[in-house]
Amino acid sequence: MMNPGQHIPAVPTRRAVLVGGSAGLAALVLGACKSSTTPGATTGSSAGQNITVYSGRTKTLVDPILQRFTADTGIAVNVRYGDSADLALQLETEGDKSPADVFFSQSPGALGYLSGKGRLRTLPAATLDKVDASLRSSKGEWVGVSGRVRVLVYNTDLVTTADLPASVFDLVDARYKGKVGLAPSNGSFQDFVTSMRQQVGDPKTLEFLRGLKANEAKTFANNTAIVEAVGRGEVQIGLVNHYYNERAKKENPSVKSANYHFPNEDLGNLVLLSGVAPMKSSTNPAAEKLVDYLLGQGAQEYFAKETLEYPLAAGVKPAVDLPPLTSIKAPAEDLNSLGDLATTARLIDQSGIAGG
Amino acid sequence: MADAVAVAATNRRPSRFLVLAGGAVGVVFAIPLFSIVANVVRNGPEGGATALSGSALRPLAASLALAVAVTLSTAVIGTTLAFLTIRTDVPGRRLWRVLCPLPLVIPSYVGASALLAALAPGGLVVSGIEGLGVRGLPDPSGFFGAYFVLTLLSYPYVYLPVSARLSMLNPSLEESARLLGRSPTAVVRSVVFPQIGSSVAAGALLVALYTVSDFGAVQLMRFDTLTRRIYETRLIDRPTSLVLSLVLAMVALLVVVGERRASRRLTTSQVARHKGALRWRLGRWRWPAAAVVAVVVGNAVIGPVSVLGFWAFRAITNDAGLASFDSGFTTLGPPLLNTVMFGLAAAAFTMVMVLPVGYLQARFVSRAGSIVGVLVVTGFAVPGLVVALALTSLVLDTPGLAGLYQTFPLLLLAYSLHFGAQALRSTTVAVTGVPQRLTEAARLLGAGSVRRVLTVELPVMRPTLLAGAGLVMLSTMKELPASLLLAPTGTETLATRIWAASEGMYLGEMGVTSIALLAISGLLTWLLIVRPASA
């Protein structure tokens, strides 16, 4: 039963509080305006001792090596971090007035998009030749820097190694019904599908995707979500990039998930590139210097040891527990041209695997 | 009842200053919509074909169904919590008042990740209770998962404005009704509810818009909505993505028109300051009422915080994990400061922007006021990415403005364009609520219009305005796309940190940073919204 009771004390008029509050806010705003004109905001294409990078790779992954670049060359690096696709759209919108000198992308898709829009400039042959021709743009506008590899992550309690498939194509078998996790909207999965299209053609690829759907594969938002789901046993196996389970193991050594590499250059064992490109809107010579630096011995060793990725140049070997790059399926040439990505997205859409 | 309610809008003509200010604000708020239309036109009919084919209709229907479900639930939950924590003697109400608005600051993908970690098959909670023999919990994904997460995270859009309104209602009406022998429940139903109707509607509108424009929760819950389609096609099929953005903006327009129709029948009573709103004694219902509040806050705040805390703890106790994320601890200061500064500045700037529009809408019957109002609202419905890109091309393509690009003022403008709707609804309700007799009295005493607003009207509107400013502040503190694209290069916020951690699967760092964001938001909510309202 409710009864009207005592009164909540009234608010006294305190104009002073209001006035003081607004003055404080104004001071904050002014202070903030001032701070925005400090070095962080400089757009660095003029000096040459200064370079602006838009990075679709996260700070944790690339900040250490960019700092080393500054220490080695004296060129200060301003970095804007973001999602690769969003940054590509921003670079396209900025056009000729872009403050960016270099774009560092998590995947070739965003680089291919900008290349198609004529926003990238050609790299010198000396830099391009540091990596295999399959690991760079055929137009010479971007170059692969490091690689992640597609793997099958599996729950070590629920699956024995004998149960694991010999090829990614086996995942449509009845014995994996309802057990597979994948992320159809994720760029890495799409790159994998594009490679499959180039190897076996569109009809077979569509058949494979429909087979996964019929086999009740569960879809997830991204790699992180799949690795977590496998760890807790929601699904037994999942198609992801190798890096995520390495992370999961670091935070939780007793995690119940492990990576499995498909043998024999299987398509499920594809290498995915992160890549870097100088912008056409920039005339800063430091752009080429940075790209070249990232393919040098020191930087390649950094990617091998610190980010646990495949180094692509300078003869550097990957960290111990990864199979050698030669046993891994290289992406087909110009795999990520824009038209290809759109066709891939349409196939995934047609297969019905992404819906819900 | 009827005589306590006055119709505020008149047929008087607004002053020239007000029209100019309102018009200017309208032009600024039209930028995102204009940019989408311009891009769609430039692309030609190409995008329309795929976008409007059958496969796009299903996501549209999904968005609408989700919006209706979430809006109805949050209207009930937000109003109930507001009534219980503001107008009753429910135990722990001071703590609840700080905790209740907080879900607003949890990014939806963080909320969704936490929920999945807890409730998905094999999750922390599920494996716990399965040990006790409980089986067969529903799979928290798809429509149900998205509905659950978005309801829990967006009820504060209703809670904050309704709380503000409830705290300033005239107690004499309720006392009279009581003295005339109405039962307490009848008084609440027939006296209190009609007076808060417009605030509930205003909050519900924001929930509907937030729901249709959310990407994080629907993506993680694998529920295929319009916004998810817009994001997934944004690079690989730009024309389709743009046409779908336009469809989303049209949905927003329909929602706004619908809300205006509905709220035309709702009236806003005019209130001056009173010695205080009435507090109802719940008697033996005190503890059950506390349980209701605790269940909601438990699921919306304490649940996610527990999961985030678990992730942080797990990473800290494993040496390898700690080594990889100690940068998160030592450098949390600058992002924290930026987050607070951006939140406060965006709230203040947005209030200044929308105040003239609020006056125009509340005091005058004018088409201009309605059009500007609709433009302000569409800014909230389109994805933040669209707002950021629209501002990018505007300043870079306009001679003389390029210097503004990626500076703090432009970032503030982006926040205001995106979140102006949250402030506008509260502002309109606040202006409508100012008793005309107060304004008239001040006019007769010779006070100019500026002085009237500053000394007479603002103090009366303060609780409602603060609620609107609070919504903008909390939304800004978790904002991601514009912060990433438009902040001065190298500037980080807690939200951009949380996103980077989640991208790289640094769950521990994600946990620590999210808890820091919630803590600082709680402090600001208490200082700026809860304490002033109950002082």
Could you walk me through the main structural features you see in this protein, from its secondary elements to its overall organization?
The complex is a heterodimer of chains A (356) and B (535). Chain A has 356 residues and is of the alpha/beta class. In chain A, strands 2, 3, 4, 5, 6, 7, 8, 9, 10 and 11 form a ten-stranded mixed β-sheet that branches. By secondary structure, chain B is an all-alpha fold. In chain B, helix 11 runs antiparallel to helix 14. Chain B starts with 15 loop residues before the first helix and ends with a helix. The interface between A and B is large, with 87 and 99 residues. Strand 1 of chain A pairs antiparallel with strand 1 of chain B.
Give the topology, please:
The complex is a heterodimer of chains A (356) and B (535).
Chain A: E1 3-7, H1 15-36, E2 50-55, H2 59-73, E3 76-81, H3 84-94, E4 102-105, H4 108-116, H5 125-128, E5 143-155, E6 180-182, H6 187-200, H7 202-214, E7 218-219, H8 223-232, E8 237-241, H9 243-251, E9 257-260, E10 271-278, H10 286-294, H11 297-305, E11 310-311, H12 338-351
Parallel strand pairs in A: 2-3, 2-4, 6-7, 6-8
Antiparallel strand pairs in A: 4-10, 5-8, 5-9, 5-10, 5-11
Helix pairs in contact in A: 3-4, 6-7, 6-12, 7-12
Chain B: H1 16-29, H2 31-43, H3 46-51, H4 54-87, H5 93-99, H6 108-119, H7 124-130, H8 142-154, H9 156-166, H10 171-179, H11 184-213, H12 216-220, H13 226-232, H14 238-264, E1 278-281, H15 286-317, H16 319-330, H17 333-363, H18 367-381, H19 384-397, H20 408-433, H21 436-444, H22 449-478, H23 481-486, H24 494-503, H25 507-534
Helix pairs in contact in B: 1-17, 1-18, 2-14, 2-19, 4-5, 4-8, 4-9, 4-11, 4-13, 4-15, 5-25, 6-8, 6-15, 9-11, 9-22, 10-11, 11-14, 11-20, 13-14, 14-18, 15-16, 15-25, 16-25, 17-18, 17-20, 17-22, 18-20, 19-20, 20-22, 21-22, 22-25, 24-25
